[in-house]
Amino acid sequence: MTANPTVEPIPHPATAEAGPERGPRRRATPLTLRSVAYSVLLTGLCLLILVPFVWMISSSLKHDNQVFTVPTQWIPREFVWSNYADIWTQIPMLAYLHNSAFLAVVISFLQVITGSFAAYGFAKLRFPGRDWLFLAYLATIAVPWQAYMIPQYLIMEQLGLVDTHLSIILLQAFGAFGVFLMRQYYQSIPDELIEAARIDGLSEYRIWWRIMLPLSRPAIASLGLLTFVSTWNDYMGPFIYFTSNELWTVQLGLRSFVGQYDAAYAMIMTGSVISVLPVVLVFLLGQRQFIQGIATSGLKG
Amino acid sequence: MTVSTAPALRKRRPPEPAAPTRRRSLRPTLVGWSFILPNFLGFALLTLVPMVFGLALSFMDWSPWGDPEWVGFENFERMIRNSTFWIALWNTTYYAAGHIPLTMAISLGLALLLNRTLAGLGFFRTAFFLPYVTSLVAVAVVWNMLFNPTSGPVNQFLQLLGVSDPPGWTSSTAWAMPAVIVASVWRDMGYYMVLFLAGLQTIPNELYEAARVDGANAWQRFWNITLPGLRPTTFFVLVMCTVASFKVFDLIVVMTDGGPGRATKVLSQMIYEEGIREGRFGLASAISLVLFVLVAGFTVIQFLIQRRREA
Q: Where, per UniProt, does this protein localize (chain A) (predicted)?
């Protein structure tokens, strides 16, 4: 980061509201004091926000009757690791995980592919009807799913797709939000680049494949990640469409577990931890690209 | 559109030379549509068609057992006479009125806190975002346990602070909704924080520099630079947050299942119960229409306010 230091005679660079420049001359003492206080504040907030996770993990390592004690034992007296071994036989956790992963991967893949493909059309090609069509996409983002889930269900029923994985895949793979997000990103890619490629004789399809896709990696990561997370965590869709147990996702499995074994607190928390782990892993792997992708797609209406 | 009638005859250049050889052929249209089509097919069949179909459905009597029949406003009359509808409408509004401002304020606050250079910044951002990626059922179950009236940590903490009779949270009709709101704000704030962070990064730093030269204090800078600069982001976040609030379902179903009594029953849940569980497709679609009008109304109002501010 090369700052432009010549034109700023301000003595306190680090108090800047949005100062990304790493202060080359931090000298004043109140300043460091400030940043210490600041870090303390953030750490405090962070701990507060993480309390539910701590509770989840700590309870998952207890016996059922130790979960609710007054005062709360944040660190279990005895670590019951066997919960993590037992849960696989208590409920078909592995099958649930498998279903969730399958749906999340397939849907994210389709979202990214069809979304970015359509976004290229909307962002870089001119043809009659384009803007109206995009407006239709945009408008539906603001329509809550619940407002059309009944007719959607009836259509799915007519197609004979209720109680199949395909129903949820079709329902979630063609989101308007994905097209919107990718288009926002594509608009930040200069048109000159595409013009140059056209002059070089590349077809539009190859431009998309060879230039746009590689350039939009952060946007792909954001969209893929958001889709993965929301599919993995979706409760209502699978809840409505999947009646057979063997189709169930982790969310449904966990929920039914809660209903069946009301007092198996520790095991329920074990299941919760397991349900959270994969998606946290995926998030941690993709988060750098993700934050960048959201930031650069601008989200300016 | 107006001048492009004469093809290659005139030598005068068109105002916008998009491509060197832009003949008036079908080709660009076909290519354009070919890009959109794979997504559009799914989108049209499973989003656009159901939306229109749903509108028609709300004026029909249709159940899994009988033939559909056009009944005019009968579904709406039945809806108005249904006391659960009014309770659900109130609860949905209550939830939105709590969830939207709290989420917006907290996520903006977090974004402002994190929008500077600091050691461990990435860690903090990740930590604040973590609740959003947490699976919903886990969130609901954990918060239910934290809110346990007798031995949950929340009430233990309140007692420590000297509250002798802490609320029963999800077991009390008065406190169930606030409990749900707390859990939902906790879950959502990280997502909107990222959006606000992105918005903050678009505000040019020079503005702050100049303001500081002019002697503006932190509050003045926030009020006169940050807030106006964030306006497009705020608008987007507000719309997304409004839509999300009015359609709340999952968290409520898992945390309270609409209870105790009907204390946390919301419109989405009623749509599910009437439509998919009871098979009253027409009535459920009528309620859906109310939900849609509510969200659309709020969105349009926000849009108009935003437009006026911009002008």
A: Cell membrane
